[in-house]
Amino acid sequence: MARGLAARRVGDSFVDDKNNQWSLSSIEMFESSVGVGDLNHQIEQFKINSGIDHLTHINNPTKTHKAALYFSFQGDNKEKSYLRYFKQFNNSGLPFSWGGKQLRDATGLRYYTRGTESEHLPIKPSQVISKESKLCPDEVISLIEQKVELPDDFRFGVVDLLDNIKKGDDGYVKNLGKYQSTVEKYIGEYAAPIKMIGNMGYDQVWFPMSGNFPLVDSFVVNDSDSLGISSKGGSRGAAASVRVISDTYREKIGDDHPIRQQAGSVINTLHLLSDNSMIDGPLRAAISLDLINDNDLSLVTHLINSDNIPSEQIPRNVKRLMDNIKPNVDHPNYNIGLHALSGIAREVCTQLNNHPCATEVFKVALKEHNFVQVHAHTQKNGDSLRFSKFDFINPYEFDGKIEFSAQKPYMATTKPKGKITFKVTK
Prior knowledge:
Elements: E1 13-15, E2 21-31, H1 36-50, E3 56-57, E4 67-75, E5 78-86, H2 100-107, E6 110-111, H3 114-118, H4 125-128, E7 134-135, H5 137-145, H6 152-167, H7 180-199, E8 204-206, E9 218-221, E10 226-233, E11 240-241, H8 243-251, H9 258-262, H10 264-275, H11 280-288, H12 294-304, H13 316-322, H14 336-353, H15 358-366, E12 371-381, E13 384-393, E14 401-405, E15 421-425
Parallel strand pairs: 3-5, 10-12
Antiparallel strand pairs: 1-2, 1-6, 2-4, 4-5, 7-8, 8-9, 9-10, 11-15, 12-13, 14-15
């Protein structure tokens, strides 16, 4: 799937968000050594010869584009046709780079196999639990059992797996081996609170449906107490936004707290990352850290939204920061401005993480939120699967590090879809 449309063939199956089936019915490539005008002429002739009336343009042509891709999908007596421009096609390997996620964002379709099907099963708590209420483990398990649109082997296997956890049994469950990644990623959100209910004196679980609890996936509760749970699959798990840390300092941590004297620059930079856009945030943070100046910010912003300029015209300090990543500059979507932004964002994180009190900044804020991280690990044995271990991490008391990260949102080939994050590391 990571290879996207370039690795697919006519006749391959795709599905939309409603699981309707679509088939890749046509794919055509156009190239011109002359320029975009000649390229568009080829495309217009193709449309006339093929009788194509409607075509969705995924991006707009510019003078730098010398290649284009036409593709269409057929499904239930309907057809969808698309056109995407590239700067050029690759001379070796796959002819173009356009990942499955980008294809899905543009068309609403994803490649379909039995393997990818399990990653999109309607098993998230928001898809299983229709309203906010406190539930005992048996009620949670029953709601999953009633989710008849799930494959039977998966549905009944998950029921047995969670029932085992409720009973304190870590035995294997048959027919779940092929669903290991889905179980670890999504079923852990049910398994973690059920495990805690059995071991820590709580009797019910509550899955909040609103966005008012950005750090937690669920709460375990009893008559007098509650504890938030941030569920993570194995040693992985999504990083969290710095927004909640910034808000905590503004709303809950007084000006006289010692951490403000010890790490005031980190807290101020954290506010800059939170208050500004995904592009402006790292750039303004870099200015505050004396990594770039206002002219550099204007240049990088301009380069992201306009034609590239030769790297020789990039200021020396910005070029040094660009060396933090080594992108494929021949990638059709490569953008020198995004390259600069990504390098700057990574350096901002490095500078912040090198501060001796960086982890403490997070711990002080996280202490205002009563929750634990639970990493649920699975183990496979043939076609059988079990939850083998649950690691409980108190983010404000553990001995590891909490770090800023720009690894996932910032790349040289696509505009960021998220801000700088933070993550608990061991």
